[in-house]
Write a structure and sequence with these properties.
Length: 733
C-alpha cells in the first residue's frame, strides 16, 4: 500500500462515525474516509462499525474509488496490546487501506507483524515541525497528520520533507494542542487519550486574579471554546504547499453534516486543482448551513488571538440569513439576505430594548420557517416571543440539506444491501477483538490515586518529584532485591533554588522546565551544564533554534515531542522522553530506547497495575521514570487566555498582564492556575498537586523527595468573590 493518493493529486478525506456517514461522504465526493473500529479509537461514543459493516463499507467505497482508513488512535495499555494487534488484523482483513495510530508502541508492534501495513501518524502525536515528520518516517509512518495550530507556511515546511502530510481543513478545534490535554482525565476521570473526552473546553468559566476579582471583559464565559476551523478560503494555498490530504473533522457528526461539508470542500478542491477561483463566500455560506460554532481561519493565518474564540456560546450558530424589520403580535417580518426554505429552523438573535421585560429569557428563540424565500424577499415568520426590530436571524437547521441527504442515503443503503446479498462480508467476524472491553477511560482519575495494585519485577526507576513531603516510602515495595538504586530528579522553578540544590544535594538530578527558563534565561545560563531541562510540549519551526541551543548546553534534556527527539539526536545530547511522548506499554518504551532515549517516563494515565505490567514485560531492559508528584498540567494551548481581558499588544515577553496571578474558575468553585509563557502559550494547571505513591510502591523504587515552593504558589484558595468584582461569578452557581 502507498500513502500517495491516485495520480498524485491532493486527497479529500472525510469523517464517518457510522455507515450512513460513510455513504454520505463517498456520495459527496470524498477520496477517502476515516472511521473507528472497536473501543481503541479516539471517538468511542461514535456509532462505529461492526466487522461486517466495515467490510461492506470498504467494498462500497472501493467500488467508487475511495479509500478507507481506520483510527486506532488511543493509548494502549500493556494488557491491551494483543487485542489491539488482533483488532488491526481484523480491520485490514475487512478491507481497510491504512491505520491511523497515535501510540508508538502499537505502531512498532504492527510494523513488526506486517512490515507492509500502511500507518498514518495521528494528530494526537503532536507533529508540528519538519523534525517531527522526519522522526515519524524513521518510525515507519507513511503519512503524518499535522497539528491544527500551524500556519500555511509551516504546513508547507512539513510537506517539503517529502513525507505525505495530512492537514485539517474544517471542523471543531480542540483549544489544547492535540495529545497534550489531560483536562478531562484529571478533572473528570475520562481520558481524551483513551477516546473518552468530556469536552471541558466547551463549558463556562470565570477568569480571576489572586484577589478573586473577575478579569474577563468579553461578552460570554466560554473562555476555552474556539470557533470551528474554516479552511475553504485556503484550499488553493494548501494544495500549493504540497499537502497530500485535506481532512474534515467530524466523526461525531450526523450524515447530513458530513454530506454538506464534504461536497463544499469537493467543489473547492476541484476548483483549486483545475486552476479556477474558489467561490469562498458561497461555499462559506453553504458550510454555515451545517453545525458550527462560528468560523475562524486564524491558525492558517498565523493568528491565535481573540478572533479564534467563540466566547458567547458553544452550540450551533448556523449562518446569518436576514434581520427583523417589523414586529407584530406573535409574528415578525424578516428581510432576507440569503435563501430560506419551508422546514428550515431559524434562530432570532434579539437585542433587548426599552420594551423588553426584565424577566425575558436570555435564550434566543428558534422558530420554524413556513415559507420559501430568496435574497431580498421579506417574509413573515411566526414567533411568540417578543423580539426587537433589528434582531439578526440565523438559519440553524437546513431542511434542504436534510432532505437531500435522506434521498441519497435511501439509494446508497440499497446498494449496500445488494453487496451483502452478493456475499461481501460473508466471512466477517461477529465482533471486534476488543469487544469485551468497556468504554476507554483513563486509569488515573486525579490526585491521590488509591488502591494501587503492586506489580512484580520492576527495573531501575527514576522519580520526578516536585514538593517536599512526609510520605513514608521505607516500607515494603520501596526497594526490591536486584534493582538498581533509584534516582531522584528534583524540579525547581527558581534559579536561586537550583543553584542551592546543585551546591548541597548529592545523588539527585536538578531539573527545570524550559518554558519557565524563558522569562530569565541569563539567570540559568551558567548552570545549564549541570541541570536537566524538561523541554516544552510544543515544537514548531520557530522553536527549533532555541531547542537546539538547549540540547547543546544542558546536561540532559527531556523530550516531549517527536521533533525534539530529532533535534536532540542531531545535537548528540543525552535525552529522556516524557508525555506527550506517551509510554503506556513496553513496546513504546523499547521504541523510544531504540531511537536513543536514556530514560523513558511512563505516562501518568497508567494505574499502578498498568505500570507494573509494562515494567515487568521490560524486565529491566529500559530505564523507566515515574512522576511521583507533579503540578498536574491540564492543557497547553497556543491561544493566550489573557486576551479575554482585552486587546493584546502582541509583545508576550514584556506583557505585564501575564506576570500577575490568574485562575480559571470552574462553576463548582475550583480555582485552576493559569500561566502564560514568553511565547504567549497558555498552560492551565489542576487546583492541587497530583501524588502517585501507588506508582512508586508498585514499581518498587526508593524515592528521594525534595521541595519545590512552586507547587504551593500555583494552588489558589476556594473562590470567594472580591467585593470589587464586577459581574463576579457565584461559586455555587
Amino acid at each position: 500500500m502507498t500513502a500517495q493518493v491516485l495520480n498524485g493529486a491532493c486527497e479529500l478525506l472525510a469523517p464517518a462515525g457510522g455507515m450512513d456517514a460513510l455513504l454520505a461522504a463517498v456520495n459527496a465526493g470524498a477520496d477517502a474516509v476515516y472511521v473507528g473500529a472497536g473501543r481503541l479509537n479516539a471517538r468511542v461514543s461514535a456509532e462505529g462499525f461492526t466487522p461486517r459493516s466495515l467490510a461492506l463499507g470498504c467494498a462500497y467505497a472501493h467500488e467508487r474509488g475511495a479509500r478507507v482508513y481506520v483510527a486506532l488512535n488511543v493509548l494502549v495499555f500493556e494488557r491491551e496490546l494483543d487485542e489491539a494487534a488482533a483488532l488491526a488484523r481484523q480491520v485490514v482483513e475487512a478491507g481497510a487501506d491504512a491505520l491511523i495510530v497515535a501510540d508508538i508502541g502499537l505502531a512498532a508492534r504492527l510494523r513488526r507483524e506486517d512490515p507492509h501495513i500502511e500507518l498514518h501518524l495521528s494528530t494526537q502525536a503532536g507533529a508540528q515541525s519538519p523534525e517531527a515528520v522526519r522522526m515519524a518516517r524513521s518510525l515507519g509512518f507513511a503519512r503524518v497528520t499535522c497539528a491544527r495550530e500551524l500556519a500555511v507556511a509551516e504546513i508547507a515546511s512539513l510537506a517539503a520533507t517529502g513525507v505525505p502530510i495530512e492537514t485539517f481543513c474544517h471542523g471543531a478545534i480542540c483549544i489544547s494542542y492535540s495529545g497534550a490535554c489531560a483536562f478531562s482525565e484529571r478533572r473528570r476521570g475520562r481520558s481524551a487519550m483513551r477516546g473518552d473526552c468530556t469536552q471541558p473546553c466547551r463549558l463556562s468559566y470565570g477568569l480571576v486574579d489572586g484577589e478573586g476579582r473577575e478579569r474577563a471583559r468579553v461578552s460570554g464565559d466560554r473562555l476555552l471554546c474556539p470557533r470551528d476551523y474554516l479552511g475553504v478560503g485556503h484550499v488553493a494555498e494548501l494544495v500549493e504547499a504540497g499537502v497530500s490530504s485535506l481532512k474534515i473533522e467530524g466523526r461525531m457528526k450526523n450524515p447530513d453534516y458530513v454530506y454538506n461539508v464534504t461536497r463544499a470542500y469537493r467543489a473547492a478542491l476541484d476548483a483549486a486543482l483545475g486552476g479556477r477561483a474558489v467561490d469562498v463566500g458561497a461555499l462559506t455560506r453553504q458550510l454555515g448551513r451545517s453545525f458550527n460554532r462560528g468560523f475562524t481561519d486564524g491558525y492558517l493565518l498565523g493568528r491565535s488571538g481573540s478572533d479564534l474564540m467563540s466566547w458567547e456560546r458553544s452550540c450551533n450558530q448556523g449562518v446569518r440569513v436576514g434581520r427583523v424589520v417589523e414586529r407584530r403580535h406573535e409574528a415578525v417580518r424578516v428581510e432576507l439576505e440569503a435563501a430560506v426554505a419551508a422546514g428550515d429552523t431559524l434562530e432570532i438573535r434579539f437585542v433587548p430594548d426599552a420594551e423588553t421585560a426584565p424577566d425575558a429569557p436570555a435564550r434566543w428563540p428558534q422558530v420554524p420557517c413556513s415559507v420559501d424565500g430568496a435574497p431580498g424577499d421579506a417574509v413573515w415568520i411566526r414567533c411568540k416571543r417578543k423580539v426587537s426590530v433589528g434582531s439578526v436571524v440565523h438559519l440553524v437547521r437546513s431542511a434542504g440539506v436534510l432532505d437531500e441527504t435522506a434521498r441519497l442515503l435511501d439509494a446508497a443503503r440499497k446498494e449496500v444491501a445488494a453487496l451483502e446479498r452478493a456475499g461481501v462480508a460473508r466471512d466477517a467476524d461477529d465482533a471486534w477483538a476488543d469487544a469485551a472491553r468497556s468504554a476507554g477511560r483513563g486509569a488515573c482519575a486525579g490526585p491521590g490515586v488509591a488502591g494501587a495494585d503492586r506489580g512484580t519485577g520492576a527495573p531501575a526507576v527514576g522519580c520526578l518529584v516536585t514538593e517536599e513531603t512526609s510520605f513514608d516510602l521505607t516500607g515494603p515495595g520501596r526497594e526490591r532485591p536486584g534493582t538498581s538504586p533509584s534516582t531522584a530528579v528534583v524540579l525547581v522553578d527558581d534559579p536561586g533554588e537550583a543553584r542551592r540544590r546543585l551546591e548541597t544535594s548529592t545523588g539527585s538530578e536538578v531539573a527545570t522546565y524550559a518554558w519557565r527558563m524563558a522569562d530569565d534565561p541569563g539567570a540559568w545560563e551558567d548552570m545549564l551544564g549541570n541541570i536537566t531541562v524538561v523541554l516544552d510540549e510544543v515544537l514548531r519551526p520557530a522553536d527549533v533554534p532555541a531547542v537546539e541551543r538547549m540540547c547543546q548546553a544542558a546536561a540532559r534534556v527531556v523530550c516531549r515531542n517527536l521533533g525534539e527527539v530529532e533535534v536532540a539526536r542531531r545535537a548528540g545530547a543525552d535525552f529522556d522522553v516524557m508525555a506527550p511522548l506517551y509510554a503506556a506499554n513496553a513496546e513504546a518504551a523499547r521504541a523510544y530506547a531504540d531511537i536513543g532515549a536514556r530514560r523513558v517516563w511512563l505516562t501518568g494515565e497508567l494505574s499502578a497495575r498498568d505500570a507494573a505490567e509494562a515494567a515487568s514485560e521490560l524486565a529491566g531492559e529500559v530505564e523507566l521514570g515515574v512522576v511521583a508528584r507533579e503540578r498536574a498540567e491540564l492543557m497547553v494551548c497556543e491561544h493566550c487566555l489573557l486576551t479575554a481581558e482585552g486587546a493584546c499588544k502582541g509583545d508576550c515577553a514584556r506583557c505585564e498582564r501575564r506576570r500577575g496571578a490568574r485562575y480559571l474558575v470552574e462553576r463548582g468553585g475550583a480555582w485552576l492556575p493559569v500561566r502564560v509563557d514568553a511565547h504567549g502559550r497558555t498552560r492551565i494547571f489542576d487546583e492541587g498537586p497530583v501524588e502517585r505513591r501507588d506508582l512508586v510502591a508498585a514499581l518498587g523504587a526508593g524515592v528521594a523527595w525534595a521541595a519545590d515552593a512552586g507547587v504551593s504558589r500555583h494552588v489558589g484558595p476556594r473562590f470567594q468573590p472580591h467585593p470589587d468584582t464586577e459581574g463576579g461569578i457565584d461559586a455555587d452557581e
